[in-house]
Amino acid sequence: MKNEFKGLIVxxxxxxxxxxxxxxxxxxxxxxxxxxxxxxxxxxxxxLQEKLYAANKYSVLILFQAMDAAGKDxxxxxxxxxxxxxxxxxxxxxxxxSEEYDHDFLWRHxxxxxERGRIGxxxxxxxENVLVCKVHPEYILSENLPGYEDVKxxxxxxxxxxxxxxxxxxxxxxxxGTVILKFFLNVSRDEQKKRFIERIDDPTKNWKFSxxxxxxxxxxxxYMQAYEDAINETSTKHAPWHIIPADKKWFARLxxxxxxxxxxxxxxxxxxxxxxxxxxxxxxxxxxxxxxx
Length: 293
Hints:
six-stranded mixed beta sheet; globular; 12% strand; Rossmann fold; alpha/beta
């Protein structure tokens, strides 16, 4: 599955098209086989997280973007269930507050970045500013930017500058030790419909559904174009996009976990090795402890 799945990484060397990707790809796995593989991947990530924390050299930033009901929340819950809570942090970004609108669009995301040795998970991210805001450019007016007092002023040049800001932001983070993993959970329109109906029919899931979800669903084609544009404009070698087939949640969780594990393994993380002086102090401490009554 790993070799086949590499074809779903967008690194900017060729144009990405949502229409040319499968949302129901499963890599030859079935649900039971994927479940066992996911357990193994989570164990591996847990061991790697310990080394990440001990080495204190890198941080890992994991971004999830998707249409409603694509499975972001459940992916985070399942894939990250084996992590030590002390070494990770999850942020879910909603509509900006008045304070956040008084700063540049990256400010609140910068505040939420993980420290070295930690894993940061962003449920939605700075990409909302070129996704939702591109479909609803009137939201940009709330930023009160000079020269953008009317929606008609928000043109191609505006979006070009915003993509550039994101690329520069991510390049800066990478240069300073932050490993960025960007996941687009690619769910089909038919599967979204099915999951929306399940939320309506199940009283325990009613809270997940809003009438506004139907209004956004009507703009599906606009969103798909916004995603294509964002992915093509911001996929780089240091911060590529991973396109995850999301019609089968069990496969999406496995794919995400294996990508995270593979990336963390590639960092060649090691536990710190003490120099001779510090090792000597450890030995002295051990002798002191052994000599206690």
